[in-house]
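Q: Convert this sequence to structure tokens.
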Amino acid sequence: MHILRYQTPTLAAFSPLARLSAFQNEVDRLFESSPFFGGNGSTSAHGFSPALDVHQDKDTVLVRAELPGMKKEDITLSLHDGVLTLSGERRQEKAADAQNRVRNERFFGRFERGITMPVQVDGTRVTAAYEDGILTVSLPKSEAAKPRQIEIASK
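A:
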């Protein structure tokens, strides 16, 4: 039998507006992609959302997003009020003949994704690199968000 020590749950940063926006995007996607609601049955601009990972250590928040087949010139990043917004457009290489098309699963067109930062970051020191279809964004934490050692005074 193992005894596990109780750990208090950690609270992630909660942004009601970001959740409402994500919900709105999902509703829009449903209506635009369904032929029952007047859509064309194909993936819309709201249907593509790049897969990403968000990690943090004591100094930095690191975001990695999968954007295969894109040029860095077609990717836009912005940081505003603690939300990193990744947007861009994946362009189709060559217009495929509809009669010869066997399968079409890749998304082409515009996309946008907002990521709420779990802590306050220093927007003046953000760096980004794009290599082999992976966008890596390094967001240094602000000094106020970093953990600090507090010295205990003696009396």
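The chain has two domains: 13-47, 48-91+109-144.
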